[in-house]
Design goal:
Radius of gyration: 24 Å
Distance between the termini: 68 Å
Structural class: alpha+beta
Strand content: 25-35%
Number of helices: 2
């Protein structure tokens, strides 16, 4: 004959198991949302973003950010190569409507000094003709300025904001979080 205490223990054990199962499923759903909807992993296949990203790094780009904010100067963005479809990562240097040029390694945006270039390598020093960034587009460069597969290349050109897949936020190697 089952006693009231035994029935209570059985019900309590069942409720505990169900609550743990619910918490586990909720946690799994959250992880899947983050990995499949919010962030997307990318393997860095080349050295164009050195010294910030190294070949072989895994980074995560934030796919929701571009729907909530306009990517800003200095953001590293992921997008597809227009010809090969390969995923590329570059840094936004100039925004829509701005004019950019480089003389002797100095970036000039709208006639005044642009970004601090001391951490980026270019040999010979970066020189680039004046370019007006069209509306709805941004000008992107590789962090390794010697690597020309960026907006300086006509194949890539100025990048449409709609072509940006997301903004790079986390480097897995040392769990670096990029805020800008």
């Amino acid at each position: 004959m089952e006693t009231r205490a035994n029935r209570y223990r059985t019900e309590h054990r069942t409720q505990t198991i169900l609550s743990w199962l619910f918490a586990g499923l909720l946690g799994l759903a959250l992880v899947l949302f983050v990995l499949l909807v919010w962030f997307s992993p990318v393997y860095v296949a080349d050295e164009s973003m050195r010294p910030t990203l190294e070949k072989g790094d895994t980074v995560f780009y934030d796919r929701l950010y571009k729907h909530l904010h306009t990517p800003a100067r200095g953001d590293m963005v992921a997008f597809r190569d227009p010809e090969s479809g390969a995923l590329l990562i570059k840094r936004i240097i100039a925004l829509e409507g701005e004019t950019i040029e480089a003389k002797d390694g100095v970036l000039i945006i709208d006639g005044s000094y642009g970004m601090d270039e001391h951490r980026y390598e270019a040999s010979p020093p970066l020189d680039m003709p004046r370019t007006k960034v069209p509306l709805g587009k941004v000008f992107v460069l590789s962090d390794d300025r010697n690597y020309g597969e960026d907006s300086r290349n006509k194949r890539i050109g100025c990048l449409a904001l709609s072509d940006i897949l997301g903004v790079v936020r986390v480097r897995l190697r040392d769990f670096t979080v990029f805020t800008h």
